[in-house]
Amino acid sequence: MYANRWFRVNLADVVLPDGRHLDHFVIRLRPVAAATVVNEANEVLLLWRHRFITDSWGWELAAGVVEDGEEVAAAAAREMEEETGWRPGELSPLMTVEPANGLTDARHHLFWAREATYTGPPADGFESSRREWIPLKLVPDMIARGEVPAANMAAGLLMLRHMLLG
């Protein structure tokens, strides 16, 4: 029904188990790759940013779309360096989530590293108002206060906290 370089909107004819049909809109999106790093003090590098669609501020991992032909982990590393100024070391998969699988086929691939090298101010610094090292132990309370509003980011941060702090 509609397409551009970011997404496509399709209309699907869904057949229910009882044989009835219904029309269902499907938003087809490119995959998203996200990454962060955890330092020796068990602090995670996050961005504080505004999302105009929901008019909300919150903490997030650096993230962006995977370009055509790009490996997902390479996209995660690229986005992290562009948005934070930190180049991650070896990335490990954290999780893959489908944030709204009743409406879209979006898959968000989250990665993390144990080390990173500061390369200078972020090339895409405009995407966040600040970048900070946040203690992982604070993550559950931050999520409870609504400071991590994106479900994919909350899930990834909780998984990371669980893996590293129990």
Automatic annotation (TrEMBL):
InterPro entries listed in its UniProt record: NUDIX_hydrolase-like_dom_sf, NUDIX_hydrolase_CS, NUDIX_hydrolase_dom
UniProt KW keywords: Hydrolase
Domain Nudix hydrolase: 28-161
Superkingdom: Bacteria
Cofactor(s) required, per the database record: Mg(2+)
Record Pfam families: NUDIX
Family annotation (PANTHER family): NUDIX HYDROLASE DOMAIN-CONTAINING PROTEIN, UDP/ADP-SUGAR PYROPHOSPHATASE
Protein name: 8-oxo-dGTP pyrophosphatase MutT (NUDIX family)
